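User: I'm putting together a small comparison set for a docking exercise, and I want a reference complex before I start. The sequence is below, and the ligand is fe (ii) ion. Could you produce the 3D structure with the ligand included, as structure tokens?
Assistant: Of course. I'll restate your input first, then give the structure tokens for the complex.
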Amino acid sequence: MKNQKPTDILKKDHKVISDIIKILEACANSLEEGGKCDLDILNGSMNLIKNFTHKYHRRTEESVLFKIAEKKAAPWGARNISSMLREHEEGAEQVRRVADLLRESVSGGISSKKSKKAVIKNIYAYSFLLGSHLMQEEKILYPMIESLLASQERKNIMKSFERLNQEMMEVGDKERYVNLIKEYKKRLNI
Ligand SMILES: [Fe+2]
Ligand SMILES: [Fe+2]
């Protein structure tokens, strides 16, 4: 798309990420109310979070955009970036915890009451963290970075994004993820 900014691409990723979080939240709500959540949906959503959010989107931010912000907007940029990086790590840790608990799950459900509680707690914590993280990036960090970019730098970032996309995603991966999200939302009625 002509005149598309680098952060427009990241904001589109955020929509996908928010949708995955909605699915995880719906699962946590159902588990908390004593119901079930299909393990297939939980595991599938966790894979989406790992592959799309923590491998692809996170790497795009950290290895391209944040690097530029650190250079161009020190010390304000550096301070903000370090808090964003901390949140990336914190989120990844919460995701690891849920994934570990799900690995222990048995057919038909999560292995124990304690594990179920821990899954719910970590999903809620992750959703809370990411909700505020995505908002801070969109409202504060991205506009600040965009305001510092010359048009050639913007073009270079777009090229780096494209290169990373080719390196980290197979052709059709994004479409497959989006279709899977649609399917899960339909199954959960959300
Ligand atoms: Fe981020
Ligand atoms: Fe982001």
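The chain has a mean pLDDT of 93. The two ends are 30 Å apart (CA to CA).
User: Thanks, that's exactly what I needed.
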